[in-house]
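Long-time lurker. I teach an intro course on protein structure, and each term I like to show students one example going from raw sequence to a predicted 3D structure in token notation. This year I'd like something fresh instead of my usual example. Would anyone be willing to generate the tokens for the chain below so I can use it in lecture? Attribution to the forum is fine with me.
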Amino acid sequence: MLKRFISYYKPYRKMFALDMLASLLISLVGMAYPILTNKITKEFVHEGKIEWIILFGIGLLVCYIIRMLLRYFVQYYGHVIGVKMQGDMRRDMFNKLQKLPFSYYDENETGKIMSRMTNDLQNVSELAHHGPENLFICGITIILSFVYLLTINWIFTVAIFACVPVLVVIAIFFRRRLKNTSMETRKAVASINARLESSITGIRVTKAFTNDVKESEKFEISNVEYISSRSRMYKAMGQFHSYTSFITDIFNVIILVVGGILVITSDQFDLSSYTTFIVSVNLFISPLNTLINFVEQYQDGVTGFSRFLEIMDQDEESVNEGAISIDKLHGNIEFKNVSFSYLENKEENIEYEGVLKNVSLNIQEGKTIALVGPSGGGKTTICHLIPNFYKVNQGEILIDGHNINDVTFHSLRKNIGIVQQDVFLFNGTIKENILYGNLDASDEEVYDAARKANIHDYILTLEDGYDTQIGERGIKLSGGQKQRLSIARVFLKNPSILILDEATSALDNATEILIQKALDDLTKGRTTLVVAHRLSTIKNADEIYVIEDGQIVEHGPHDELVNIEDGAYSKLYKAQFER
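-- Reply from a regular --
Happy to contribute to a lecture. Here you go:
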């Protein structure tokens, strides 16, 4: 982990080197005060050299001015290094998230992922800056003060530094406890963010069902968990700091007692040496306390980086080695004995009932097939497998004779357009959302796609036209308008394969008729899969597949299936139209 952390310093190694040089100079300047104190008290005070005292005082002031400038450099550029490293980690994490499979997002809440990218990386940024700075400045200062104290009186120095191993033992003892409680706190913060994200996103549903009290209760569960974990962390921190502070207080006791005895009994340890020793020991204790207090920040940073690495080490979406890029797919799709399950736990050797079981189907280029059947039967799963969103457990899926695992994700998915019931629109303008289908499209191509989706005329009635902001997830638009925008987006993409997953099931009849016309235009010349519960919308499909319990129980054209006595499709059709 340390090696991976250090790798983020590489782009900024020149600035980092200057930062460490400035830190070294700060430590060296810090040694000027005890040295000058010894010089002044031993020589100039006794000899009455006022002019030399003033001169050394001016020299010390100049040193402090230099240290002020160096501290500014370290504080400013050190934090700049930290925030740039944070930016690099955030960029790497975001790019990683783009490459993770759908299954990862099935198992991890959005708010928790966001917490890792914001709160956790902020702590990593602080560690990236303060870690090397504290270790370097404090380490150099402790070493220099120790060496200088030895020159004054080595017996006194050894007596004081005998307490240091005790501090080290305490730090090691509490490190694990602090690490565990810090990790618990990070998870609790992520849980709060996840609950908050869910509640804010669903605020309209909450208000509609007057369930604000219930949401508050659910939030309070995460809130109490956070308070509890944070309390345990503060308890461990309190024990750590109280014990370490007690040890540093012992330094003062030793200085007072041993120093006083040496002044009385030793000819080599006078009052001026005693005064210098007190100043120098404080120079030693101060960075030691800084390192002790740094333990909390260190644990927060290490915990944050560990959680960052948990995402970075996730398995990415993968295709077979040597996967090819195909510019234009024709749209011949074949499922060969495909079995698939969302739930599979090989480590615990638990077998789950598959969503799809030995499914085989063949879709010819340009044909329209419909998938019908009870909810949960596997219709949408078939649609998810074609773009290779999930890996099949058994069997294979071929497009134009190529196993989809032998085709790059980009070339496969750019040839597939998807229109779903639950339309997702990005917070932005109408034009930006349509352009998502083809970022290189011209304005005229955007307008043409909108015309084909039967929404161009409506857009022109808006004050800002195509530059109208649609709000989060398109909240300012109606369901039909959002659906037509998504259809315009697919028109602009111009894919060879089209997947319509209950694209009109949530719309009123008038809106459905309008959108169905746009969809009919969209399907022309494309291989199309339609998932539908309203059987009236798929009567003209070239072939209909009835999916039940993950298996194909019937398939054929509408006129043939509807006339099969006690057939699965016939029962569905009668249930809808013969009430």
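Some talking points for your students: The CA atoms of residues 184 and 229 lie 6 Å apart. DSSP finds 20 helices and ten strands in the chain.
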